[in-house]
Amino acid sequence: MIDLTPYRALIFDMDGTLVESGPLHEIAWRETLERYGLPILPALMRSLAGVPTRQTLEIVARESGVSLPAPVDEMNAFKEARVSELAPRYVKATALGNLALEQNGLRPMAVGTGADTDEARRILDHCGLLSLFDVVVGADQVQHPKPAPDTFLACARALDHPPHECVVFEDADLGIEAAQAAGMAVIDVRSRFQFVNEYFLADEAVG
Asked: Which residues have C-beta within 8 Å of that of residue 171, sequence separation ≥ 6?
């Protein structure tokens, strides 16, 4: 049981926190990387969980010693389209969806995610969660996405609460770093809820 008494506002990461989406993103990423001829590096992809698609593509190319084979916006659009098409088969709410439902109307709540806003809203809506949140802040709304604090600070501003009154629920090291940099309390859902972000755990594609 989590004591939320000290906090006036709640901020949730999406993928791996509110939404079980590891298989969805692995399939979409594998298809994207294969389509554009970039190598699939499972360990690197796991380390980039929570990083927006555009930045991930740039990092993969840099770490592989190659140039991006197409405009990054084109590659991002392809991956987003695959996520939208595959989401009905592969995403579902986690136990934190129940916590958000319990807190609905009691505390203002936001989602701060490394996904683009439109994609995040579609996934949350598919999982029946979108209406619970006052605001959704995606990577496209901030100049510096996670691990910078901008995403969570934007959530706090939208909820009209200072950072020290907010608590962030996160499942990724870079997201936890972002919450701490924002001056917010953070709950690592991997340890508190035994969540596992099943993302590029093996070299074989998820089917």
From this structure: 13, 15, 16, 17, 49, 188, 189, 190, 195, 197
d(CA 161, CA 167): 11
CA atoms within 13 A on the CB side of 166: 30
Q: What domains appear along the chain, each with residue ranges and CATH number? A: 9-21+92-192 (3.40.50.1000), 22-89 (1.10.150)
Instruction: Compute the CA torsion angle 192, 194, 199, 202 (nearest 10 deg).
Output: 140
Q: Please state, in angstroms and rounded to a whole number, the distance separating the CA atoms of residues 112 and 191.
A: 20
Q: Per the residue annotation, which of 13, 15, 150, 188 is the catalytic one?
A: 13
Interval 16-29: pLDDT, tens: 899 988 888 899 99
Contact 136, 114 (CB under 8 A): no
Instruction: Tell me: pLDDT of 76 over 50.
Output: yes
Query: Is 13 marked active-site?
Result: yes
